[in-house]
Design goal:
Chain A is mainly beta. Helices cover 0% and strands 48% of the residues of chain A. Chain A contains no helices and eleven strands. The chains are: A mainly beta, B mainly beta. The interface between A and B is medium-sized, with 30 and 23 residues.
């Protein structure tokens, strides 16, 4: 019973390139949450998705960032035209139902480094 | 807004030493409080939680008590082991009728604990 799988573990991009981060939730989980941890800060909520729907993207930067969770396949967090300030650890979490009283299951994160 | 402040790390202890990692929070009303742990190479895992004032969460020898009067949720363990070496995150989840979204956790920065044999 695999946990939340994120890949790649480490991603290096040059300024202006695109970054794609993948998250496969636990089996049976249809709710996915993305968090970002900037250096010297705590994890911060970015976006909450269900299959084919964005439920809450209030934590997403207004430009260059997008997220999807298609009917088939992993959830993707996409960052276009990356800048050095995007360097951070990006964590994905999943739950079988809306996380009202459910604990979230986290992946081990993707460390994005922008050169 | 909501915020969590936890003890700066890193913390280095010898095996069997007493551990305290301080955590204080700012939030509307009485949020749920959590400690998550991230072992090397793994995802964050829920360690323990408390959902109302004076509740004590406990797991694997770790304890934390929800203190409303001091808005704190300090993590303690009486005798740490090498296997406890990890990053520890304090977090809160706002209550529903505070206007917050109850799936949005607010985390502290994390405290790296290293336990030496």
């Amino acid at each position: 019973n695999a946990g939340v799988m994120q890949n790649p573990r480490h991603l290096v991009r040059r300024r202006g390139q695109e970054a794609r981060l993948r998250c496969s939730p636990m089996k049976g989980h249809s709710h996915v949450y993305w968090y970002r941890q900037l250096p010297e800060e705590g994890l911060k909520f970015m976006v909450y998705l269900q299959k084919e729907n964005i439920i809450d993207e209030s934590g997403m930067p207004k430009e260059r960032f997008s997220a999807e969770f298609p009917k088939e396949g992993p959830s993707i967090l996409r960052i276009q035209q990356v800048v050095r300030g995007d360097s951070a650890a990006y964590f994905c979490a999943s739950s079988p139902r809306p996380a009202t009283n459910e604990k979230l299951f986290f992946g081990s994160g993707t460390q994005l480094s922008v050169l | 807004g909501n915020s969590v402040t936890q003890m700066e790390g890193p913390v280095t202890l010898s095996e069997e030493a007493f551990l305290t990692i301080n955590c204080t929070y700012t939030a509307t009303g009485y949020p749920s409080l959590f400690w998550y742990v991230q072992y090397p190479g793994e995802g964050l895992q829920l360690l323990l939680k408390a959902t109302k004032a004076d509740d004590k969460g406990s797991n694997k020898g770790f304890e934390a008590t929800y203190r409303k009067e001091t808005t704190s949720f300090h993590l303690e363990k009486g005798s740490v082991q090498v296997s406890d070496s990890a990053v520890y995150f304090c977090a809160l989840r706002p209550i529903i009728n505070s206007g917050g979204s109850n799936y949005k956790l607010t985390f502290g920065k994390g405290t790296l604990l290293t336990v030496n044999p």
